[in-house]
Amino acid sequence: MFDRKTLIKPLESSPDWDVIIIGGGATGLGVALDSVTRGYRTLLLEQSDFAKGTSSRSTKLVHGGVRYLAQGNIDLVQEALYERGLMLKNASHLVRNQSFIIPNYKWWDSLVYTVGLKVYDFLAGKLSFGKSTRISKKETSSRLSTIKTEHLKGGVVYHDGQFDDARLAVNMAQTAIEQGATVLNHFKVSHLQKDANGKVNGVTAIDNETHKEYTFNTKVVINATGVFTDEILQMDTAGAKNTVRPSQGIHLVLDRSFLPGNDAIMIPKTADGRVLFLVPWHHRVVVGTTDTLLDSHSLEPKPLDKEVDFILETANAYLNKPVSKADVLSIFAGLRPLAAPKDASEKTKEISRSHKIIVSTSGLITITGGKWTTYRKMAQDTINKVIFLGKLPHRECQTKHLSIHGADGSADDTDHLYIYGTDQKAIERLIQESPELGDKLHPRLEFLKAEVVWAVKNEMALTVEDVLARRVRILFLDAKAAKECAPVVADILAWYLGKDDDWKQSQINEFTYLTNQYIL
């Protein structure tokens, strides 16, 4: 069912669709899920790999947005808290309840954060992840053994969600396919088709694997391309004004010894007013994020030296275990598709994270903004808008209680394979049938060869990067180890995809070049 060639085969004989979505990140995949579960013939095309861009580069949080509460954006927070609760239920193998501690170094802060977080709890209602509480200096330093204790007054504990972003994107693609959608990675839209009245009625797209060109007809095209939104809008109208200004956020990944407990740290006020998180993730620690407006965008954004320095300086101001560049296992950068600020002085942290739906005169529908936590609501609003415009017959949204592929509330996170949820047993069967697949990909890592086989056979992985960046998250956890794994992964892929030695070497070379951007 999840074989790319099998999905592509019927395309020539069935070029007509109800909905075509451009973009395979959180937003596009969410729209595909909403569309197909309402019974519309749905096609999604992603130019690279699912979640290649912003959607694999988040802070790994499913959250209401404590800082949006401080800005007074109650509606956004309430919406996100509701969606957070649905994500925990619908993707129970990947989303979990995470406790956060805000360390307080002033008595006044303790009171302010306690009151604010009680409002956060109240807004979550029945879908609350747990009550916020004040804790003493002794308990704070006990739970956060690496926190600086000088002048520490205590802490405030609150609860939010933590997840694996790229894994969820892959499982959403699988869910959409199970529901009847055709969802394809490495398939680039090159042109928008229009009728005699200038209305968009299809797309031309190229399969990057075979370089074959296809033309598809549709009732509606939805642009869900994130930071690439303006490229599609300019494909629609030459010279169209930019609507998106990319904001870069970077993250550093450290060894778990820098945050050995089960709690995350939230630093609400940094030197420039941004929030910084230290979050346990796959037995490592993710530290971030920054917020830097950029003038350009790319599939592989590069961290800036000043961003690295900012995170290290801020972390070192709170930790009693010094962090240096030598301690960074991986560094990754992501771009947020913010609405282009009207005023050059407008700060990125003050630009609304609410999503926005744009209807072009050609009928092209564009969904921008938002965040991972609200992907389902963004999709619902987008398809509702399409229905309101009369492009599709009215049908109710079905995704509120739709389980995502792999959902398993009983998953045991002491075994790293828990992230596969209900697929874990199938991976274990692969190892029983071929014991060599139980070998580790790297001696200091927990990941197995069987996971690569699973990725290529059941998760549409086509390249070494697809596997090591977004199926098995080694590139984001330990970039040097990822580089060393590349030849083994290339061998396995070549065997299952029928590729030759030249292809293998090309893959190794490309991935080696890529990993250098993730190593400090």
Q: The biggest beta sheet, please?
A: 10 strands, mixed
Q: How many E strands?
A: 18
Radius of gyration from the CA trace? 23 Å
Instruction: Count the DSSP helices.
Output: 16
Low-confidence stretches: none
Q: Work out the helicity level.
A: 25-40%
**Overall pLDDT:** 94
- Shape designation: globular
Q: Determine the strand fraction and express it as a percent band.
A: 15-25%
What is the distance, rounded to the nearest whole angstrom, between the alpha carbons of the first and last residues? 40 Å
Category from helices, strands and their pairing: alpha+beta
Short précis:
This protein has 520 residues and is of the alpha+beta class. The chain is built from 16 helices and 18 strands.
In words, what does this structure look like?
By secondary structure, this protein is an alpha+beta fold. 35% of the residues lie in helices and 22% in strands. The chain is built from 16 helices and 18 strands. The chain has helices at residues 4-8, 26-37, 66-70, 74-90, 107-124, 137-143, 165-178, 229-236, 305-318, 375-388, 424-433, 449-458, 464-471, 474-477, 479-497, 501-515, and strands spanning 16-22, 42-45, 61-62, 96-104, 133-136, 154-162, 182-184, 187-194, 200-207, 213-223, 244-255, 264-267, 276-281, 284-288, 292-293, 330-339, 356-359, 365-368. Strands 3, 4, 5, 6, 11, 12, 13, 14, 15 and 16 form a 10-stranded mixed β-sheet that branches. Strands 1, 2, 7, 8, 9, 10, 17 and 18 form an 8-stranded mixed β-sheet that branches. Helix 2 packs parallel to helix 7 and helix 2 packs across helix 10. The protein is globular and about 70 Å long. The two termini are 40 Å apart. The relative contact order is 0.15. Belongs to the FAD-dependent glycerol-3-phosphate dehydrogenase family. Residues 397-502 form the Alpha-glycerophosphate oxidase C-terminal domain. InterPro entries: DAO_C, DAO_C_sf, FAD-dep_OxRdtase, FAD/NAD-bd_sf, G3P_DH_FAD-dep.
